[in-house]
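Translate structure to sequence.
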């Protein structure tokens, strides 16, 4: 009896399941007409029409399933390809294969790992990495014209000067120019570090001899600015001279900024003696409030009179610093250096990541930029150290050459590295505040170098970019 009851329940359950399957098939087959346009008959003899869908192509269940499989990311990566405008001549196209998208997404995850797990500029590299992954999602459409989120972000502030300007304003609001004011001669160290920028121009000429690599002067200037180790300035200049190279230039600049603790110490030790590393510098004099207030105003006036093409960047830096030092608008100052700077950094980094596509990255020119960026950074570090050694030939109060490496504008990481190397050789030798002088001078120096390039090539580059866009 028990066995018979179980068998009856199984038969009932099976019957109900078969009826449910038949019902679902009936509804689906009625909703999706056959491929020849006639309604698919059902067991209920229904002919369902959805109002407003008269012009929608009919799709059979088989076609629906095939389309679903074809639109999976797996199929797009294995078999997919798409035509994208050529970087040099938009009237032509370049084929991007699915595996190339996969490789770029892998690079994006690597960038995320370096920021999240290794602590390499996480505030910048993590959103850059996610932007790289997002823009390479097959069929994701996140860089679609007029509608893609990443395209909107890029057009709003990355492809122009908006976001870099806001970044400079925030940097100004969080920077203390006191060490530079107290010891003005350290500004020479920040200027000497720009040697890396100009030496790289010659390096670009040499790289043009390598088969498959070709740079024009606009691109050379945009690449060279990596030597200043200033991400926003690199993006700003690339946007004006070589927009198609912005992604790899920005990633190279931020990556080398993050690698300051690894790149600079060997160069610093190679170019200095043990006795030089142990030089103790006198305590900096106190800087009055009026000096701190007048410094950004004086800086702005000088840039307007001497290098007006650098005045926009320096002006925003001066604006942020003036608001910080004047002390009567503390709420605005706090917003500039905290909430606003954080929001703009996220948008800027996502926008930079949106440019990390195969046609822009997977080519010999991009590899050359990575190599040249490292050269520029190394020469900039050496330039600051050697300038300090040269100055010591004429100074009574010697400068510790280690602070010369802080002439690159990676604030405040480069200053911390100078301090750490000094402490390694003398635990009582604190160089941090002394190193901040050339460090903030490097920010100004890189902006000036960018201004010089814009003054020299800006108009010609604008004409070329406009012609290519047409």
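Result:
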């Amino acid at each position: 009896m028990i066995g018979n009851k179980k068998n009856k329940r199984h038969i009932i359950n099976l019957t109900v399941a078969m009826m449910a399957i038949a019902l679902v098939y009936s509804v689906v087959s009625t909703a999706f007409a056959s491929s020849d346009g006639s309604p698919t008959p059902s067991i209920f003899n229904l002919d369902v029409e959805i109002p407003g869908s008269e012009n929608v192509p009919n799709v059979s269940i088989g076609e629906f399933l095939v389309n679903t499989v074809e639109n999976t990311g797996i199929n797009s990566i294995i078999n997919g390809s798409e035509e994208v405008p050529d970087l040099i001549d938009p009237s032509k196209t370049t084929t991007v294969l699915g595996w190339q998208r996969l490789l770029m997404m892998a690079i994006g995850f690597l960038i995320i790992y370096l920021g999240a797990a290794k602590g390499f500029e996480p505030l910048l590299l993590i959103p850059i990495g996610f932007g790289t992954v997002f823009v390479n999602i097959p069929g994701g459409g996140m860089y679609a014209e007029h509608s893609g989120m990443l395209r909107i972000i890029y057009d709003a502030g990355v492809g122009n000067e908006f976001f870099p300007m806001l970044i400079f304003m925030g940097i100004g609001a969080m920077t203390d120019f006191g060490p530079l004011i107290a010891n003005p001669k350290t500004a020479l160290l920040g200027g000497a570090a720009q040697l890396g920028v100009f030496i790289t121009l010659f390096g670009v000429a040499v790289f043009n001899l390598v088969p498959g690599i070709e740079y024009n002067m606009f691109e050379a200037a945009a690449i060279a600015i990596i030597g200043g180790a200033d991400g926003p300035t690199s993006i700003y200049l690339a946007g004006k001279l070589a927009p198609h190279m912005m992604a790899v230039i920005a990633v190279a600049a931020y990556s080398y900024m993050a690698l300051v603790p690894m790149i600079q110490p060997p160069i610093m030790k190679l170019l200095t003696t043990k006795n030089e590393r142990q030089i103790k510098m006198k305590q900096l004099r106190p800087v009055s409030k009026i000096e701190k207030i007048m410094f950004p105003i004086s800086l702005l006036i000088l840039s307007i009179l001497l290098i007006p093409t650098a005045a926009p960047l320096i002006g925003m830096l001066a604006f942020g610093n003036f608001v910080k030092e004047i002390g009567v608008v503390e709420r605005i100052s706090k917003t500039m250096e905290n909430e606003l700077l954080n929001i703009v950094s996220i948008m800027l980094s996502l926008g930079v990541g949106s440019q990390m596509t195969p046609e822009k990255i997977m080519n010999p020119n991009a590899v050359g930029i990575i190599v040249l960026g490292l050269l520029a950074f190394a020469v900039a570090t050496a330039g600051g150290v050697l300038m300090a050694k040269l100055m010591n030939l004429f100074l009574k109060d010697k400068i510790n050459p280690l602070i010369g490496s802080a002439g690159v504008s990676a604030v405040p990481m480069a200053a911390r590295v100078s301090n750490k190397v000094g402490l390694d050789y003398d635990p009582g030798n604190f160089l941090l505040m002394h190193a901040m002088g050339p460090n903030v001078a490097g920010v100004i120096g890189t902006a000036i170098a960018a201004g010089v390039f814009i003054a020299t090539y800006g108009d010609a580059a604008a004409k070329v970019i406009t012609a290519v866009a047409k």
